[in-house]
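ESCALATION

Customer reports they have been waiting on this structure for their group meeting. Please prioritize. Original submission:
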Amino acid sequence: MNVIRIKRLGKEFFWTSFAQISTLIGSFVGIRIITELLSPTQYGELALGMTVSTFMQAIAFGPLSNGAFRFFSSAKEEGFESTKSYFAALHKLVFYIICLLTLIAIIITLVFGVIGSLEKFALGFTAFFFGLFLGLNNLINSIQNADRNRTIVALHQTLATFGRISLSTLIIILFGASSSRAMLGYALAMIFVFLSQNYFLKRSLIKKFNSKNLRTIKQNAWISKLSSYSWPFATWALLGWGRSASERWALDFFTSTKDVGIYSALYQVGYVPITLFFNMWLSFVNPVIYQRVGDGKNISRLRKIYHDCWKLTCLGFILVIFLTGFTYLFHEFIFLILLPESYNSYSYLLPAVVFAGGILSINHHITTAIHSHNKTRALIIPTNLLHFIGLALNILGAGYFGAKGLVFSLIIYSILSLLTSIILSRITYRELKLV
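Update from on-call: job pushed to the front of the queue and completed.
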């Protein structure tokens, strides 16, 4: 039995690693190609357009994906009927989300049609569809990850990464360089990936639970359960999006769109790779944690999960320090390989961005313990407060110091986030001792 379990875990780790490594390689290849094809100003416009899709993930798909991921294992554990109700509830919630986002998109489209330029309208329009299908793909990935179907997730993540690069490059070569055409390539790639994702989801999971009857099953209990767990994520995600998007918009307001492009390239080279690296580990570990903790009511299981998550955080911190030192020594060489010369003016900020990204990534180990305890509501006030502080720091940093100020504010925000999560995890852990 132990040998079989070890083989399964080894296979899962291989495919999880494959997905993240291919995504990491794709991000490096993509940024090299796209920054060669787009000027810093055009790349800055693309980065600003991406805030539309991240907004959609923040307020809708991100929170629901967290809920879907958290409760799939417990639904499956409860039995056949519970799992059918779980899928029925998700189907209904996704329908509501699409209706809400479409209404918002129509309003924004009308505004851009009246006061905006044709290029901005095209960028916003394509960014909406990219965000919509990105969110649907992420939701399906959450379900497949929770069921530990690592191969399906890995192949689709790889397809999405290289599909975006290939289609955006092809469209730019055929029709000329612009931010909206690059975004169109991203959107088309995500639509193709979604069609494949939907096929595999139906084949591997939904058919097992009699998909023809999904809409007739009593689903109110699961809608309530998923919503009550997910809505706290949405409450802090909006301010979280504001904090993240304010980096680019504040820099655009106080300096120039060109600076936004160069800063975004720095972010892609420094912040994204270390986040992907830790996501590789988290996407492997978290389904195991949630499977072990079940519905989050077993005290002895929860205590062990807290201790495991704290140990993982300490190991992660050591790794972050090492990677920060490495990028400090080789930041010029890294930029020389990955970016054109016109983007190299911020290379000295790379170690600081890597450090901030690493600290925010290892913070997820601690919040995983809190989430497994079903204590997401305990995070609402402190997380929103942190996002507000981060947003204010971004505006001040960009206003007074430009890109350097943004990086400094990112470091302060990441350290405050880690310290806050540590304090909250100790508080929620003490509640277990009182039981």
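Sent to customer with the following note: The mean pLDDT is 84.
Escalation resolved.
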